[in-house]
Design goal:
Elements: E1 7-9, H1 23-35, E2 40-44, H2 53-65, E3 69-73, H3 77-85, E4 92-93, E5 114-117, H4 123-138, H5 145-162, E6 167-175, E7 178-185, H6 189-197, H7 201-204, H8 208-216, H9 227-230, H10 232-244, E8 248-254, E9 256-260, E10 265-269, E11 276-286
Parallel strand pairs: 1-2, 2-3, 4-5
Antiparallel strand pairs: 5-6, 6-7, 7-11, 8-9, 8-11, 9-10
Length: about 300
């Protein structure tokens, strides 16, 4: 018999337009999973017919980094097929990915949840291959090719530069006329990066939300002569997503999150028990850029 004390029920998460809202449910799952004693627990999917992309990918990334064995139970046949295709149980190793390797996904609306090494010379090649699949399968307008390429390059570069993480993650899915993109690492967090490099401590103190704010304002932790300009990678990418493309941006790192959408910017600390080990970025953008969009307004 299954031990009910080691079971976490996975809720049905609605398609809420407020980006990052899925973490209201994810935090509870993470907390409950961490509280369970022993080396194994069960995630019960009896209430689920589908998983929202911004719920699915973070859940898989948490699972990939969890030290406990997590067993999936009560999956309906369609949801199981979807989870198998996106490599939910075991993320897709993209470290040595080949050019045509994921061509089977060209007819789908998503790529698998890809895990890749942050070190080495393969990051640019991995990004190029995944970007080609995303653009072809999602039928994005030509106006979006350059913004997507620049955004992925900047944000994936930041993982390799500051996170101290061995691995990064990338997931993308088309939902109607929008792309949902997830980029994550399991490294030292944005706040931890400032502490590690001993930069801007006078500005952030022990406040992780302040660290997210200055990171999104362009304060870099990179120790290269051009660091101050490169520091605008996150800031300009975020502005391009929201102000240029009319999309939405969400960043969670440690015990703080940063949300920027059409309504406002919100930067808040969260309770320690809901800590996210590393940094995860959610991006929602249209398949076609607005007629008045100018890419060069968002690059340094």
């Amino acid at each position: 018999m299954k031990n009910k004390d080691s079971t976490v029920c996975i809720p049905q998460v609605s398609r809420d337009k407020r980006i990052g809202s899925a973490f209201n449910s994810l935090f509870k799952i993470i907390w409950q999973s961490e509280e369970i004693e022993g080396e194994e627990l069960v995630w019960d999917f009896k209430n689920d017919l589908f998983l929202h992309p911004f719920f699915l990918a973070p859940l898989a990334i948490y699972k990939d980094n969890c030290e406990k064995k997590i067993v999936l139970d009560n999956l309906n046949i369609n949801l199981k097929a979807y989870l198998d295709n996106v490599c939910f149980e075991k993320t897709y190793d993209g470290t040595n990915i080949k050019e045509q390797e994921l061509d089977g996904y060209l007819s789908r609306s998503y790529i698998p949840i890809v895990k890749f090494k942050c070190s080495g010379d393969n990051i640019d090649r991995i990004q190029e291959i995944l970007q080609r699949i995303i653009e072809k399968q999602s039928r994005v307008d030509n106006s979006m090719n350059t913004p997507i390429s620049h955004m992925l390059s900047e944000l994936i570069d930041n993982i390799g530069e500051h996170s101290g993480s061995n691995f990064g993650y990338l997931f993308c899915q088309r939902v109607k006329k929008e792309l949902y993109i997830v980029i994550a690492d399991s490294g030292r967090t944005i706040y931890g990066s400032y502490v590690h490099t001993e930069k801007y401590i006078d500005k952030i103190g022990d406040d992780e939300a302040k660290a997210l704010k200055i990171a999104n304002d362009g304060y870099s932790t990179k120790d290269r002569p051009e660091a101050e300009n490169r520091g605008y990678g996150i800031s300009k990418s975020r502005e391009m997503v929201v102000k240029g493309l009319g999309g939405a941006f969400f960043m969670l790192s440690g015990t703080a999150f940063y949300r920027h959408d059409e309504n406002d910017i919100n930067v808040l600390n969260i309770p320690e028990e809901y800590r996210w080990d590393g940094t995860i970025i959610l991006i929602r953008i249209p398949l076609k850029a607005p007629d008045d969009f100018c890419f060069y307004n968002y690059v340094e």
